[in-house]
Structures are given as structure tokens and as C-alpha cells.
Amino acid sequence: MTGALLSFSASAVAIRGLAHQFNIFEILSIRSGFGLLVLLAVAVARPELRRLIVPQYLTLHLLRNAVHFVGQYTWALGVTLLPLATVFALEFTMPMWVTLLAVPLLGERMTASRLGSVALGFLGVLVIVRPGLASFQPAAIWVLIAALAFALSLIATKKLTNDVSSFVIIFWMNLMQLPMGLAGSDLLFPLRLDAGTVVPALLFGVAGLASHYCLANAFRAGDASVVVPIDFMRIPLIAVVGWMLYGETVDIFVFLGAGLIVCGVLWNLRAESRRVRPPQ
Predict the structure, then answer these.
(1) In a 10 Å sphere around its CB, with 0-12 CB exposed, 13-18 middle and 19+ buried, how is residue 132 labelled?
(2) What is the DSSP string of 217-276?
(3) CB within 8 A of 191, min separation 6: which ones?
(4) CB under 8 Å to 34, separation ≥6 — which residues?
(5) Torsion from C-alpha of 76, 80, 86, 89, nearest 10 degrees
(6) pLDDT digits (tens, 9 = 90+) for 176-202
(7) Which terminus, N or C, of the chain has the lesser number of Cβ atoms within 10 Å?
């Protein structure tokens, strides 16, 4: 889980390091291109993984990756416009969106704990964004759109994982999202890489793959009730990174709002774990 925390923070720093030289489409193309090259190399080295890459569920893969690309784009845009702690705090509204969307899309039931989690998440957003006040930052809307897109992507992933391995999902993600990024890019943009952007580009490519790998392994190795609270350490960690690298001040309202969102998620997580716990 430590690797996932560091990878998410590194991705945000890498985007900041690339944004002055490349547009968001080009930045995302760097990530997808790097990831695809690495995954192709792994597939060549491991025939058992290569045999898994077959053209199945392509419509669902395409829908998932189109929505996920929107999430990646708007999240990266938020990273360039907002304090990093604000971006990460608002991103944690994703479980709220998943809870709401799982009712019509997956047929799940809306329980009291799920409804309470959504209410606390919505209240947390209001505390962070503070609409109508002078401190309101319109760019926060981009991050909320990203959280919604990530929630839709997660629901699609949940359906895919019944029949498809994580390697295949990540492979199709990079293969499909690369042309999406290139569609808005100057095709000669790699020639603009210089001494000041090569390191952020490599960092973004490595962090992009590492974040997925580390998070998946964390959930595989540990219970969600342990992993999820550790994941919330992203907010204070990125607040320290933003302060040290960019001189960003810590907004107390961001932490208050994030606290409400976290409480909602943990409340629902605790209720869900009790619901599925086998009788003694």
C-alpha cells in the first residue's frame, strides 16, 4: 500500500512537471505509451499472459476506457489548476458515486449506511468547495467529474473481473487510451521532450503502472477494512508534498471536508463488513 500512496503522489508531481511543455492529451499519451510498451514486453516474456489477450468483451472495455479517459483528463486538469490536497480530497468522493450508481447499474440495494455515506460525502464536498463564497474554486468541478468517471469505470471493472484478469484489463486500458490521447496531441510532441521533462515523463509512466499494480496487490493481500483507511493517508501525504514543492498552504476546510468524506466511507465499509461476515 505504501507503493500505491507514493505512486499516486508521484503521478501528480509528474503532471505538474510536464504541464508547462505538453497539453493534457499529450501527457496522458506518455503514460499510455509507456505502459503499453512495458505490458507488451511482459506479454512476450510470459506466454501464459499473452494467451489471455483475446478480443473479448471489447464493447465493455471500450466503454470503460472512454469513461476512464475522461476521468484521467479531468483529474490531470484539476492537478494543474488546484492545490494538490484539494484534488485528492475531492477524488475520494468516488465511493459516494459508486454507491449511488451501483443501485441502477448493478441492482444493488440502498441501505441506511450507504445513504448515510453519500450524505456525509456530499456534505464534505460542500465544505471543501464552498459554493457561493469568495473562496469557491470552479476548477473543483473538474475533479468531481473525474471522481464520477472513475466510479463508472470501477463499476465496469467490477463486471469485467468476473471473467477477465487484471493484466488483460490494464493491457486494453493502455492500448485503447493511447489513441484517445493521440487524438488531441501534436503527433511530433515526443520531440519536445528535453532534459527538464524526461524525468517527469518517466516518473509518470512508471507511477501509472505501479499505482494499479500496488493497489491491486494491497487489496489481494489485506482486508479492505485495513487497506482503505491507509489509502486515506494520500491526503496528508500530498498536502506535505504540495507544501514542500510548490509552497501550497494547507486549507483547514479541505481537511474538514475530507474528514466528513472519510467518515462516510469508513461507516459504510464497517456496515458492509458486518453484513457479509459469516455467522459465528
Answers:
(1) exposed
(2) HHHHHS-HHHHHHHHTTHHHHHHHHHHHHH-PPPPHHHHHHHHHHHHHHHHHHHHHHHHH
(3) none
(4) 201, 202, 204, 205, 206, 208, 209
(5) 10
(6) 999 999 999 999 999 999 999 999 999
(7) C
